[in-house]
Amino acid sequence: MLGKFFKKPASPDQDRVPPGQYLASGFPVLTYGDTPQIKTEEWLFKVWGKVATTKIFNWSDFMALPQSEFTKDFHCVTRWSKLDVTWTGIKVSDFMALIDLLPEATHVMQHCYGGYTTNLTLEEFLHEDNFFAFQLFGQPLTPDHGGPLRLVVPHLYAWKSSKWINGLEFLDREQLGFWELNGYHRRGDPWLEERYGGF
């Protein structure tokens, strides 16, 4: 199994792969539960909680924002990594220019079609490398990979890059998401191997 689908990192890629990870030959798909099927014309994205005004965006609203191409490495907590993944999407910073956060906002909960949630501190969420992706390697993001839209948080394990995202709830305290409540680490830094626990 290791030789066919995964391999140990070797120079020059060795320094790009966190400890305990193997390089994937493809792009594995891991999903808990059913895969939501959402048409872009029906897709909505809500922002609420510790914000001045609750806002709801449709697909056209998102597509009107500046679009960029991103090439980032991707690390899954199940010990595989994929290097140089190319996405097209929208910088979190460009989207957040539309949102007036209240001063007490310190955390954010990602909400997704299908009921999945995962938490981030506000600082982690606003990281300059984060983006919302709607294309993967130049093609529309398929439902298996989180389409029509997912968040990508390259500096943390991939469960923090929620698939099928449809909302952000800004909070004044930490709340744990689905996997965090089931034993995963509350932060998930792959370089520190923050896989489980962390309380």
Q: How are the elements arranged and paired?
A:
Blueprint (H helix, E strand, L loop, with lengths): L1 H4 E2 L14 E3 L19 E6 L5 E4 H5 L4 E8 L4 E12 H5 L10 E6 L4 E5 H4 L5 E6 L2 E2 L9 E3 L12 E7 L6 H4 L18
Parallel strand pairs: 2-6, 3-12
Antiparallel strand pairs: 1-2, 3-4, 5-6, 6-9, 7-8, 7-12, 9-10, 9-11
Organism: Microcystis aeruginosa PCC 7806SL
Protein name: Oxidoreductase molybdopterin-binding domain-containing protein
H and E string: HEEEEHEEHEEHEEEEH
Q: Mind telling me the CATH superfamily name? A: Oxidoreductase, molybdopterin-binding domain
Per DSSP, what share of the residues sits in E-state strands of 2 or more residues?
25-35%
Please mark out the parts with pLDDT under 50 across 5 or more consecutive residues, or reply none: none
Radius of gyration, in Å, reads 17 Å
Give me the count of strands: 12
* Count of DSSP H/I helices: 5
CATH topology: Sulfite Oxidase, Chain A, domain 2
How would you state the average pLDDT, rounded?
Answer: 92
